[in-house]
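Recall from the previous lesson that a structure prediction takes nothing but the amino acid sequence as input. Here we apply that procedure to DNA endonuclease SmrA from Salinivibrio siamensis. The sequence below is the only information supplied.
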Amino acid sequence: MSDKNEFELFREMMSDVAPIKQDTVEDQTGSHQPTEAQLARQQAAQKLANSDPEYLSLEYAHMVKPDEVMAYKRDGVQDGVFRKLRLGKYDVNARLDLHKMSLEKARDEILRFLKQCQRMDVRTVIIVHGKGERSNPPAMMKSYVCQWLQQISDVLCYHSALRHQGGTGALYVMLKKSQEKKLETRERHLSHRP
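The prediction returns the following tokens.
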């Protein structure tokens, strides 16, 4: 059957079909306006520079399993950067071990540690939270740490570490450059222009 015959057959079959009037779709040609919930989340994301430990809740965390691989990537982080972090290809310049700490102490230590790393321009770190197989509930520290890191806007991404660096009991964490380091870099580039 030729294309022309197929087309004629199609037209013949569709001759009694009437187009549906669509009045339920809104015109979306205008610029996107964030919802109130999106604005609240954006404002709630905590910067390390002015972080308050009380902001990171001790009340509730979505519980995960001890052997669950954890991964988080903030919008805008390139897939290649995240893949490199996941594969342990970045040099880990600092380490924090949370074993035997209470949740409150761990929360304070994480904020202190990440602030210090950012000040020293350390971008990739490892946080050892343990698997929590014997905690009640299981993986309690792991669950809270993952939730807290997502609430800190200076954390770009994290992923469970490779087995030799703690596996599912540790996280590789990548931080944003501090504002001071961003300004230094910009000034250095501007001063080297001809």
